[in-house]
């Protein structure tokens, strides 16, 4: 990679580390065997068509891939289906209505078991209620809910009437919610009075009220689930209690059969500019790949497994591997509302023991946090039911991988390190647990039907362990269909770096065995605790504060969270700034105020770990901020080549500032 390109931020693991093949018993009973690779390689489109036919179609498709408008690819375009019918009704019709779909565990100790038959009723009632509130096919619905069963019901009810949902993570602020509601032109918001987090009721509806008070939205109604029983402000005519309209609605509902390409949902994610991207996904292709990958990667045996993915529905992992994938496959799954350390640090392991969880899917940051808490915490629980462990969101360092396998998996469970993105919709690169000899730290091989390459700067494939750019060189069914309202940005962001090829934004290398090692983002996107954050978005939040003249944000490596947000700010001088603290602790006060300002603009997850007040920022002669140098400072490294700086003295001043705690 050329020196002035952003460099990969992490480089974990080695190629010659030990491998962990599946046990012969595991391999013999696996849901998917080694032959699947050959079948998919021999006839890739035929393979995906075969997977698509595991779904129920109201109108069968005859076209598999339509590339006439590439890169806006279409899959199974002449077929019609419905997502909620496939996720729920189909299992009831097949005689599995009594199977438990959701084992919900509230943080406050409450729990609910919901069978597929009950879920079918709830979804149909909610779909009727949405229709009675004026939501039609194609209208967008914003969902801002905690991890409660109604979140799943709400998403499926939207899907049932063909209204794309836009789930906004409950940790995002009113500002962030407002911009997402505006961008999608949502007409309904589904929220709750609040949810339980860290042992206390935490309100949600006030953020919806604040977001809507900012104006400009097309929202006609707010549908409110009562979860905590806390006081809520009420806007008559606009606000409607869920319990006043959903349980009363009919449980009869004919799903709206939509074309395979009908948008199922929009999900906002961070890009390299300040404006989040509304990634939208189709129905047929997305469902095909989420159900296949969920079955194959987790070796799902729906009659006997108890699956648990710890992701929040506000992220793509929650969409694909809490809602759609598991339900399409008729799985029984745990959903947990709260935090891993409430009321004690063994809460997750207590849940595994209580429900006999067999498959656990979580993020490296959570694993590293548990490592910090010590092995005796999980050691106090019976985890012998576990048989497959998954990891997602960021590279997993081999140390965390081996700890996960030993302390949680009893040295017996395969681990699947799954690489994918909001944009890919479904897992793309991962071992198959009954087939692959796992290599700690490597996501390893593209799944059957997926074609990935590591490319050099000129777009030529690399196979000799050199670092390059990860690219997906053939279309895949669950691929994003675009950026909502911005086709040009879609083309520019993903399809222009290497023409005709999807550029993922990740650095990678491919070792001599053909295994892929992910090296982190090569753009200005950060990955904090597996959450994607944009440097530009946080910078624009900082400069929107009246005290800030300029800001630069970098992701610095962090032992627990993978990366952490570190900001450098230049404060504004001049007469208009009258309220800025002065005195001995002025800097600390400024930093505290700016951190909470970022929290309010985006959400607590975006608050910088540290903010350094500086006099200058390192810039090239053309005025571009050299984030690479700031990252060196933030990671306490010697600063690299500074010859392209306009003022080479700047770095010395910044480093002196970094020496004192911010
Ligand atoms: O950098 C990669 C990292 O997460 C990014 C995608 O983030 P997001 O769209 O929020 O989706 C996260 C959940 C799928 C990727 O560009 N990433 C995700 N999984 C892995 C990973 N990096 C390395 N190894 C992984 N298994």
TrEMBL record:
InterPro entries according to UniProt: Ac_CoA_lig (IPR011904), ACAS_N (IPR032387), AMP-bd_C (IPR025110), AMP-bd_C_sf (IPR045851), AMP-binding_CS (IPR020845), AMP-dep_synth/lig_dom (IPR000873), ANL_N_sf (IPR042099)
Occurrences of domain AMP-binding enzyme C-terminal (ranges): 537-624
EC number(s) recorded for this UniProt protein: 6.2.1.1
Domain AMP-dependent synthetase/ligase: 91-483
GO cellular component, one term: cytosol
Binding residues for CoA: 197-200, 317, 529
Top-rank EC class of the record's enzyme: ligase
PTM annotation, UniProt: Acetylated. Deacetylation by the SIR2-homolog deacetylase activates the enzyme.
Domain Acetyl-coenzyme A synthetase N-terminal: 35-87
Entry keyword annotation includes Ligase: yes
Protein keywords: Acetylation, ATP-binding, Ligase, Magnesium, Metal-binding, Nucleotide-binding
Cofactor: Mg(2+)
Keyword ATP-binding: yes
Gene transcribed to yield this protein: acsA
One BP term from GO: acetyl-CoA biosynthetic process from acetate
Protein name stated in the entry: Acetyl-coenzyme A synthetase
Region (Disordered): 1-25
N6-acetyllysine modified-residue sites: 624
Described function: Catalyzes the conversion of acetate into acetyl-CoA (AcCoA), an essential intermediate at the junction of anabolic and catabolic pathways. AcsA undergoes a two-step reaction. In the first half reaction, AcsA combines acetate with ATP to form acetyl-adenylate (AcAMP) intermediate. In the second half reaction, it can then transfer the acetyl group from AcAMP to the sulfhydryl group of CoA, forming the product AcCoA.
Binding sites annotated in the UniProt record for Mg(2+): 543, 545, 548
Binding annotation for ATP: 393-395, 417-422, 506, 521, 532
GO molecular function: acetate-CoA ligase activity; AMP binding; ATP binding; metal ion binding
Family the UniProt entry places it in: Belongs to the ATP-dependent AMP-binding enzyme family.
Domain of life: Bacteria
PROSITE patterns recorded: AMP_BINDING (PS00455)
Reactions the enzyme catalyzes: acetate + ATP + CoA = acetyl-CoA + AMP + diphosphate
Biased composition (Polar residues): 7-18
């Amino acid at each position: 990679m050329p020196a002035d390109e952003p460099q990969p931020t992490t480089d974990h693991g080695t190629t010659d580390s030990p491998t962990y093949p599946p046990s012969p018993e595991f391999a013999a009973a696996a849901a998917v065997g080694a032959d699947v690779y050959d079948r998919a390689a021999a006839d890739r489109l035929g393979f995906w068509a075969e997977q698509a036919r595991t779904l129920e179609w109201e109108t069968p498709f005859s076209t598999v891939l339509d590339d006439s408008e590439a890169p806006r690819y279409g899959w199974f375009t002449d077929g019609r289906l419905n997502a909620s019918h496939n996720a729920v009704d189909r299992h009831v019709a097949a005689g599995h209505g009594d199977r438990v779909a959701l084992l919900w565990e509230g943080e406050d100790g409450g729990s609910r078991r919901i069978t597929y038959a009950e879920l079918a009723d709830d979804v149909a009632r909610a779909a009727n209620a949405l229709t009675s509130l004026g939501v039609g096919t194609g209208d967008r619905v914003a969902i801002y809910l905690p991890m409660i069963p109604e979140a799943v019901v709400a998403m499926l009810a939207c899907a049932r009437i063909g209204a794309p949902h836009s789930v906004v993570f409950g940790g995002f602020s009113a500002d962030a919610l407002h911009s997402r509601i505006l961008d999608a032109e949502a007409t309904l918001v589904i929220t709750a009075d609040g949810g339980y987090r860290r042992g206390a009721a935490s309100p949600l509806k006030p953020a919806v009220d604040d977001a809507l008070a900012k104006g400009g939205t097309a929202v006609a109604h707010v549908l409110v689930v009562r979860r905590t029983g806390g006081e809520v402000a009420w806007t008559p005519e606009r606000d409607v209690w869920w319990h006043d309209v959903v349980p009363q609605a009919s449980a009869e509902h004919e799903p709206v059969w939509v074309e395979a390409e009908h948008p199922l949902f929009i999900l906002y994610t961070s890009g390299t500019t300040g404006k989040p991207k509304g990634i939208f996904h189709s129905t047929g292709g997305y469902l095909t790949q989420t159900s296949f990958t969920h079955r194959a990667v987790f070796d799902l045996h729906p009659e006997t497994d108890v699956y648990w993915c710890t992701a929040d529905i506000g992220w793509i992992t929650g969409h694909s591997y809490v809602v759609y994938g598991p339900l399409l496959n008729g799985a029984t799954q745990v959903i947990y509302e709260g935090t891993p350390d409430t009321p004690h640090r063994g809460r997750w392991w207590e849940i595994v023991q209580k429900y006999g969880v067999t498959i656990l899917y979580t993020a490296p940051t959570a694993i590293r946090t548990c490592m910090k808490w010590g092995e005796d915490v999980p050691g106090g629980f019976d985890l012998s039911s576990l048989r497959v462990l998954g990891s997602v969101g960021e590279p997993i360092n081999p140390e965390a991988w081996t700890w996960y396998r030993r302390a949680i998996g009893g040295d017996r469970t395969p681990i699947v390190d799954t690489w994918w993105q909001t944009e890919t919709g479904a897992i793309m690169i991962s071992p198959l647990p009954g087939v692959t000899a796992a290599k700690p730290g490597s996501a390893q091989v593209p799944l059957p039907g997926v074609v990935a390459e590591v490319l050099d700067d000129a777009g030529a494939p690399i196979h000799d362990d050199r670092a390059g750019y990860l690219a997906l060189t053939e279309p895949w069914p669950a691929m994003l269909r675009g950026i909502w309202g911005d086709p040009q940005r879609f083309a520019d962001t993903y399809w222009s770096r290497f023409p005709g090829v999807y550029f993922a934004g990740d650095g990678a290398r491919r070792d001599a065995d053909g295994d892929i090692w992910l090296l982190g983002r090569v753009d200005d996107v950060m990955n904090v605790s597996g959450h994607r954050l944009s440097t530009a978005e946080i910078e624009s939040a900082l400069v929107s504060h009246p005290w800030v003249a300029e800001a630069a944000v970098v992701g610095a490596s962090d032992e627990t969270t993978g990366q952490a947000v570190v900001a450098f700010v230049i404060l504004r001088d001049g007469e208009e700034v009258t309220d800025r603290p002065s005195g001995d602790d002025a800097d600390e006060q400024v930093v505290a105020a700016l951190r909470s300002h970022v929290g309010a603009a985006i959400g607590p997850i975006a608050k910088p770990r540290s903010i350094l007040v500086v006099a200058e920022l390192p810039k090239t002669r053309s005025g571009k901020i050299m984030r690479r140098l700031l990252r060196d400072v933030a990671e306490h490294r010697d600063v690299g080549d500074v010859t392209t700086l306009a003022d080479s003295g700047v770095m010395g001043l910044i480093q002196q500032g970094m020496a004192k705690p911010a």
